[in-house]
DNA sequence: CCCATCGGCTTGACACTGTCAAGCGGACGG
DNA sequence: CCGTCCGCTTGACAGTGTCAAGCCGATGGG
């Protein structure tokens, strides 16, 4: 309804289509049907717009985790991987502090809120961090095609399946 | 000596100072003391320049791994983490296919050559991939400050130490 | 020895970007 | 009914990547 929402929606669309680097404020404004300087009225600068989108992304990730019937570490890890591979551009943006206002309180709150779910599922912190790093790395390597190249898989669906399988293998191999 | 080498060196310097997004072909040309369009003569476009730098990065990573006395999975993982945290901007660029010519044969060769060292150290492929994803995720989370935020560590050296410790904890916990 | 050719580099231009300053216009309160 | 905001537009600026044309010196042939 409001111009701000239109701009956010347009930016989300541009993000899906062109990736975070392909987002131009002017293209977003054009898509939202406003003048090229309208975004300045709602977001201090480009980074502020991206930060708002990233914060939304963390909220969606948290919501996806909350939808789980049993929030075990294994289930959370699968949800994390699914989220990352379903919204690759959004996930990319969320973990790109150099392009965001990384100290924005709303962004930090949304991010910490998401990660707290991982923490709640493991009894010790080092297990939390190791598991987080594992699923995070899997998402990135799968998204960038590195996993598929090593394992000789072409279709994205196959790579996603491989990533999920590796996460399962990890939970089986890890001790206590 | 040659203009091409000067451009690559200037780009490396710009990369360290401003990150991959802050690299401007014109600034690189200025730094190398040539005209703003000189890069076009040696690199088809901006992505081609970045691709050449990324390929160099993979060669350096491979060299660091070859310097290891005993190329065990644990030692390779530490070397991977050290490389990523010592050259954060370079590492960032290397795994950013959207900004590179991802199908460039030289880049692919250099990349595969690096990763083959990980593969040689594990007896089964899924262990290779899991370990790779783990150290890769650790580098990214540590570099972006996410690890430090969770563990309440401010200094980069402390975060690097934490990442190394987590990698060690992983190798201890993982089964065969 | 001179001249022609050719490749590496420069110069100039274009469309596009993010950002800023000024100004318009309609809604809202006195 | 009038004045004052506030949201948005218009216009400008410096900076970007890329392309086209032209210069200029080294290289090779006559």
Automatic annotation (TrEMBL), chains A, B:
SUPFAM superfamilies: Homeodomain-like (SSF46689), Tetracyclin repressor-like, C-terminal domain (SSF48498). Residues 24-43 bind DNA. The keyword Amino-acid biosynthesis does not apply. InterPro entries: Homeodomain-like_sf (IPR009057), HTH-type_TetR-like_transc_reg (IPR050109), HTH_TetR (IPR001647), MT1864/Rv1816-like_C (IPR025996), Tet_transcr_reg_TetR-rel_C_sf (IPR036271). Residues 1-61 form the HTH tetR-type domain. It holds the Pfam family TetR_N. Keywords: DNA-binding, Transcription, Transcription regulation. The keyword Ribosomal protein does not apply. This is TetR/AcrR family transcriptional regulator. It comes from Paractinoplanes lichenicola.
């Amino acid at each position: 309804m409001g111009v701000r929402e239109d701009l956010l929606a347009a930016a989300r669309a541009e993000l899906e289509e062109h990736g975070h680097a392909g987002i131009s404020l002017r293209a977003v404004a054009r898509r939202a049907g406003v003048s090229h300087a309208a975004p300045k009225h709602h977001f201090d600068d480009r980074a502020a717009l991206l930060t708002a989108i990233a914060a939304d992304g963390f909220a969606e990730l948290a919501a996806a985790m909350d939808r789980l019937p049993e929030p075990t570490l294994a289930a959370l890890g699968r949800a994390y991987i699914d989220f990352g591979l379903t919204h690759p551009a959004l996930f990319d943006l969320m973990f790109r502090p150099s392009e965001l206002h990384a100290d924005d309180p709303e962004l930090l709150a949304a991010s910490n809120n998401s990660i707290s779910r991982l923490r709640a599922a493991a009894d010790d912190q080092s297990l939390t961090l190791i598991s987080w790093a594992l699923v995070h790395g899997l998402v990135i390597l799968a998204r960038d095609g590195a996993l598929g190249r090593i394992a000789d898989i072409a279709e994205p669906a196959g790579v996603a399946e491989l990533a999920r399988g590796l996460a399962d293998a990890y939970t089986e191999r890890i001790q206590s």
